[in-house]
Amino acid sequence: MRYYSTVDKHHIVSLQQAVLKGLAPEQGLYMPEQIKRLPKEFFDSMATLTFQEIGMRVATQLIGEDVPANDLEQMVKHTIQFDAPLVEVEENIFSLELFHGPTLAFKDFGARFLSGLLAYFSGRQNKEIVILVATSGDTGSAVANGFYNVPGTKVVVLYPSGKVSDIQEKQFTTLGGNIKALEVDGTFDDCQRMVKFAFSDEELNQQIFLTSANSINIARLIPQSFYYFYAFAQLKDRKNPVVVSVPSGNFGNLTAGLIAKAMGLPIHKFIAATNINNVVPKFFSSEVFTPQPSVSTISNAMDVGNPSNFPRMYDLYRNDFNLLSNDVVSYYFSDEETKSAMREVYHTSNYVMDPHGAVGYLGLKKYLKDHKNETGIFLETAHPAKFKEVVEETLNTNIALPQRLEEFMSGAKRSIKISSKYQDFKSLLPTLIT
User: Fold this and answer.
1) Is 1 a residue whose pLDDT tops 80?
2) CA dihedral 167, 169, 170, 172 (to 10 degrees)
3) Does residue 421 have an active-site annotation?
4) Span 283-307, mean pLDDT?
5) Quick one: pLDDT at residue 64?
6) What are the extents of the domains in the chain?
């Protein structure tokens, strides 16, 4: 499979080049030249397959010709070591729980797959790889833990000071080893900007082999497509159209779902649900994409004012607004609406949602209000305990910390505070990886 840049479609690279570089020149994003549809027989038999078997079939369809089958199978098995159960919350409304991995967030799937793929490629080129990642919460913990002590790699995590939860911060600042955490005096958008500048900095790239583990790396999106197929396979009754609501910040998760749909997965509609960082909902109402400064909310992993994956999502539909609007609708919700939904579901269904899942639930409910004969799935992207203070205050109940989180909380935080100036970051980076 060959990959092109969303900025320059004549810039074509291999999978290895796309994964190792992460970002194309001029900050383009890599996309596969073609997305082949899976055969009808696969969908007919999908309910009888395990999660790993589904993942292997999808991975083979997307990148099988670029990685030997045995190696790819090991990557898929390493990625899918935990379940992603579909839980009925209300009649015909299901939560897809994506928080059963080691850091209790959906990004464990992408980080584990990417770590295997990068280890495979770094071994072939015999060169250490430095992975830069900007995080608003869960990406940092998933990537740091996915790459912890992976040979041939070092990880540098940039995160906005005071804008991630204590638990999220502890998950990537307590590891040490090949993991370095930079606490940036700014927003997530500042962190993301510095990472993008680093990739386009020729001088820096001559010194250090840089790649990304953010969702700008196409290898993050491939495994995230697996659980859309698995969710559909778990549905007992498929007579009604199926819609999926995705709580969205950088829009990598939604883009992975749209890739699954392009491969033939019969999802009728996707709902892009955001908090008040509503650049994409505004786009769907105006056809104008206007980045804006991010605003802090209780669903902090979605506090993104310039979603990196939007060009990739739009590119899937040939930058045609009408085509995209046929498959995607978008809504946004305030913190108060989010808390109200968390309370309502807890009191009526005894189900605890985290703030991000609650935004997805709200998007689904809003859509289903006018489309009653459809089955809805919303993505529950992180364990509620990762947002313990907000959840406990909202629901007036105690949330027990899983043992994995307890272990992180007992560790000592190790981070380096830096400004949001790119030159300060550029000067510091070489000293971190020697």
Assistant:
1) yes
2) 130
3) no
4) 94
5) 74
6) 83-102+220-395
Residue 20 has pLDDT above 80, yes or no: yes
Query: Left if phi > 0, otherwise alpha if psi is -120 to 50, otherwise beta: which for 370?
Result: alpha
Confidence band of 211 (pLDDT split at 50, 70, 90): confident
What does the pLDDT look like over 167-206, one tens digit per residue? 889 999 999 999 999 999 999 889 989 998 998 899 999 9
In the block, tokens 């280890």 appear at: 119
User: Do 7 and 26 meet the contact criterion of CB atoms below 8 Å apart?
Assistant: yes
Share of the chain above pLDDT 90, in %: 79
- What pLDDT was estimated at residue 16? 93
**Terminal Cα distance for the chain, rounded:** 35
Confidence tier at 22 by pLDDT (50, 70, 90): confident
What Rg value do the Cα atoms of the chain yield, rounded?
20
Q: According to the CATH classification, is domain 83-102+220-395 in 3.40.50.1100?
A: yes
User: What pLDDT, on the 0 to 100 scale, is given for residue 136?
Assistant: 79
Interval 355-361 mean pLDDT: 98
Catalytic residue among 107, 180, 269, 386: 107
Distance CA 434, CA 343 (A): 49
Q: Does the pLDDT of residue 138 top 90, yes or no?
A: no
Q: Which two structure tokens, joined as six digits, stand for 407?
A: 């272990």
Residue type, 280: V
What are phi and psi for residue 379, nearest 5 degrees?
A: -90, 120
